[in-house]
Design brief:
The complex is a heterodimer of chains A (193) and B (566).
Chain A lengths: L8 E9 L4 H11 L6 E6 L5 E9 L2 H13 L3 E7 L4 E12 L3 H12 L3 E6 L3 E8 L1 H11 L4 E6 L3 E4 L11 H10 L9
Antiparallel strand pairs in A: 1-3, 1-4, 2-3, 5-7, 5-8, 5-9, 6-7
Chain B lengths: L1 E3 H11 L4 E4 L6 H10 L4 E4 L3 H15 L3 E5 L3 H4 L2 H9 L4 E7 L15 H5 L5 E4 L6 H13 L5 E7 H5 L1 E3 L20 H13 L3 E5 L1 H6 L2 H11 L3 E3 L14 E4 L6 H9 L2 E5 L5 H4 L10 E6 L13 E4 L2 H8 L9 H16 L13 H11 L5 E4 L3 H9 L8 E2 L10 H11 L5 E6 H7 L3 H6 L4 E7 L4 H10 L14 H8 L3 E4 L5 H10 L4 E6 L29
Parallel strand pairs in B: 2-3, 2-4, 4-5, 5-7, 6-7, 9-10, 9-12, 10-11, 12-13, 13-14, 15-16, 15-17, 17-18, 18-20, 19-20
Antiparallel strand pairs in B: 1-8
Helix pairs in contact in B: 1-2, 1-7, 3-5, 3-18, 12-15, 16-17, 16-23
The chains are: A alpha+beta (193), B alpha/beta (566).
Chain lengths: 193, 566
């Protein structure tokens, strides 16, 4: 299923509170608004209570903006940014299990991997596992080449993304932090700003 | 002060200024009901007969007062019965807080008795919801719940409290001061360049029209909208929920828009060169076919919910902000204008409409809904709070009961919830005890929540019920007549004797079949300090005109012929 990398693809990055049910809220929003998304990844950040989502949308910036304004309405979503024209780095990781039961296939795998930022992380008499990190596009191209050898299993993480330069996208405090501070304030006056 | 979770709930309600809550007890919420006894003098609990009634009552209370309405139910079926009311409040941006019991934390996920994943079930129909897993979180969650419900674009918030959390003790500290939610900051003001854009469009327009929505009422921007309309001489069309945004007797107000709106409004929208949409969201019942909607008009759209801008209709100037604040920014810079030819054109359309008015028809021997509604309007001095159900009577109320004040028509617009009217009227009366309240309901919708008659009697709440009985699901029947060749599948109704039913509940009642008997019945209802019921038996096959068929062009209206042309 080689897909042409679309010029229309837009990336949305959302900082969300690391709380139970947040992923469910986001997924539910996409479902009920019938938003078509290409990929969604969630992971931790350096802040204990903040997670970060990268959402790839196979549509124009207008559509991405609609998704972003709806995401921003969720109380647990701290901040949303559409990486449209902003220069940014993006990475996808794939683990690909391929046939390696003859010399030919082993040679081909090694040869292909040499030409890509890919490495063989496991190899046995029957199959090998390749780890490949890169942009979505380059992984697509790599997969197309490896397909000839015989892919037997595969997983991709989906794209994660980060804007270049010093425009920092971070949130150092969450709702829960604030509320806890308020509740613990000794004089009962929990005003914290 | 060390308190149990159940007591903390009560304390928080008091802190938020709550005086009344609508609910129904059950196993998982029992600790909270037990705590109520201590607070009875300050917090009145209304025992409903079905939890759906509780959520509609909280909604009616909220719509009538602008304050947060509170409903309370047990886990499982109690909570799921609230769902229709939550969805109704969500669609119409009504602030309510629902508190539900939940099975104890260790039992969650085990399919325990009366367990339902209530935060999961209500996720799409609440503005936000919470499952409280630690009693120490309860106070700030309650505070957040009220804050989120009433600020920004208001909406329902649900707090699900497991039974063991209600029983657990902790030090009670209510967080005072402002709530800070990092991911939640409703927009307030317009940017200068947005104001510049809006002012320029208004200055250039020759055929402008204001589309006045519910947001005006919620923001309290009635005076500002009126100033805008008067100074720039802009006609005002109202959405169903925007009724009361400006007095309907005001010469610039040209009636409701949309599917069953005033024809003049719809024609004016299609002819306009500028739409100024204020606190409305271009619902499909308002726009008809989007491709041909207001084809000549540029659009200014002001809404507090940024995601409404450019959702259905692309705005030339879209402003996310609080309407009152934005208009206050705009008005000092607004130049007076006049649109003589445009307003004359609108008067001509209005003239044509009034000739088609059903009240101009001779209708010997039959009673029409329009007549009932219009006579109630006259007999209440046009000053009652009317709460409708959904269907033909709802549209005819909107057409024949002009409202002068904001928040005096309470109706389920977005969700179109049958069964809303009567319980919402009870809730409204608790919020506005000094007002005359009329629940105008159909025979179909009333039967969905009529069990609340017992609630009205138990509370001796002064709500007048006007049942518009045509022994049909009238609006569905109208669609069947127009679009399904009169195949009246499942719309004729064999109804109970509503007056006997009222007798059984101990509710004084009247039965009216002739127009000349309306006045006596209404006066009778007004004379009684408690619930009353009047059954109006109306013409079976009435039609609501004008009608824009679903998805048709807004100007493509089915209209009632003028007398003599029929």
């Amino acid at each position: 299923m080689a897909k042409q990398a679309s010029a229309q693809k837009v990336t949305i990055v959302a900082l969300v509170e690391n709380e139970p049910g947040v992923l469910n809220r986001v997924a539910s929003l996409f479902r009920r608004r019938a938003f078509n998304i290409d990929s969604l990844t969630v992971g931790r950040t350096h802040r204990a209570h903040v997670s970060r989502m990268t959402i790839r949308v196979d549509a124009g910036p207008e559509y991405a903006k609609r998704i972003a304004t709806n995401l921003q309405k969720l109380v647990n979503v701290i901040d949303v940014r559409v990486l449209d024209n902003e220069p940014h780095i993006e990475r996808d990781l794939a683990l690909i299990k391929v046939r390696s039961d003859d010399t030919d296939s082993r040679n081909t795998i090694t040869e292909i991997c040499d030409r890509y930022p890919a490495r063989i992380v496991d190899i046995g008499p029957k199959v090998a596992i390749i780890e490949m990190v890169g942009t979505e596009e380059i992984i697509e191209t790599f997969i197309d080449e490896v397909r000839a050898v015989g892919i037997v299993e595969m997983i991709r993480t989906g794209v994660v993304s980060m804007g270049r330069g010093i425009r920092i996208h971070d949130a150092d405090i969450t709702r829960r932090d604030l509320a806890r501070v308020a509740a613990q304030s000794p004089n009962g006056n929990g005003r914290i700003v | 002060m060390r308190l149990k979770g159940s007591e903390i709930i009560m304390e928080c309600l008091l802190k938020e200024g709550v005086h009344v809550m609508f609910g129904y007890p059950g196993g998982a919420i029992l600790p909270t009901y037990d705590a109520m006894a201590k607070y009875e003098d300050r917090l009145h609990h209304v025992l409903v007969r079905h939890e759906q009634g509780a959520s509609h009552m909280a909604d009616g209370y909220a719509r009538a007062t602008g304050e947060v309405g509170v409903c309370i139910a047990t886990s499982g079926p109690g909570a799921t019965n609230l769902v229709t009311g939550l969805a109704t409040a969500m669609m119409d941006s009504s602030p309510i807080v629902a508190i539900t019991g939940q099975v104890p934390i260790p039992a969650i996920g085990s399919d325990a008795f009366q367990e339902t994943d209530v935060t999961g079930v209500t996720l799409p129909v609440t503005k936000h919801n919470y499952l409280v897993t630690d009693v120490r979180d309860l106070a700030y969650i309650m505070k957040e719940a009220f804050h989120i419900a009433r600020t920004g674009r208001p909406g329902p918030v649900l707090v699900d409290v497991p039974k063991d959390v209600q029983n657990a003790e902790t030090e009670f500290v209510y967080p005072e001061g402002d709530i800070v939610l990092p991911g939640y900051s409703p927009p307030a003001r317009a940017h200068e360049r947005e104001l510049d854009g809006a002012l320029q469009l208004i200055a250039e327009a020759e055929r402008p029209i204001i589309l006045a929505g519910h947001g005006i009422l919620m923001s309290g921007a009635m005076q500002e909208v009126r100033e805008l309309a008067e100074r720039a001489q802009i006609p005002v069309s109202l959405t169903l929920l925007g009724k009361g945004a400006m007095p309907e007797e005001h010469p610039l107000v040209i009636g409701m828009m949309g599917m069953h709106g005033e024809a003049t409004s719809n024609l004016a929208i299609q002819e306009a060169d500028l739409l100024i949409a204020l606190g409305m969201r271009f619902d499909d019942r308002v726009t008809g076919n989007l491709k041909t909607y207001a084809p000549n008009a540029r659009k200014i759209h002001v809404d507090i919910d940024r995601s409404e801008l450019n959702k259905n209709v692309k705005a030339d100037v879209g402003i996310a902000g609080d309407l009152k604040t934005v208009l206050r920014q705009l008005l000092p810079r607004l130049q007076p204008k006049s649109h003589v030819a445009w307003i004359q054109q609108i008067r001509d359309w209005l003239e044509d409409s009034s000739e088609r008015d059903i009240l101009n028809y001779e209708t010997p021997g039959i009673l029409l809904t329009a007549q009932v509604v219009n006579d109630i309007w006259k007999l209440t001095g046009g000053d009652a709070i009317t709460v409708t159900d959904v269907g033909q009577h709802q549209m005819l109320e909107a057409q024949y009961y002009p409202h002068q004040r904001p928040s005096t028509l309470l109706t389920s617009g977005g969700l179109g919830t049958m069964g809303f009217g009567f319980p919402a009227a009870i809730g409204a009366k608790f919020g506005k005890p000094e007002e005359e309240i009329w629940a105008i309901v159909g025979d179909g919708g009333f039967q969905m929540t009529l069990c609340e008659m017992a609630t009205a009697v138990q509370e001796n709440i002064n709500v007048n019920i006007a049942i518009i009985n045509n022994n049909f699901l009238g609006m569905v029947r109208q669609w069947q007549e127009l679009f399904f060749e009169k195949r009246y599948q499942a719309t004729p109704m064999v109804n109970p004797d509503f007056c006997k039913l009222a007798d059984a509940y101990g509710i004084p009642n009247r039965y009216v079949t002739r127009r000349e008997d309306i006045e006596e019945a209404v006066r009778f209802a007004q004379s009684i300090d408690g619930p009353t019921l009047i059954e109006f038996v109306v013409e079976k096959e009435e039609m609501v005109y004008p009608m824009v068929p679903a998805g048709a062009d807004l100007h493509d209206m089915k209209r009632r012929p003028k007398p003599g042309e029929a």
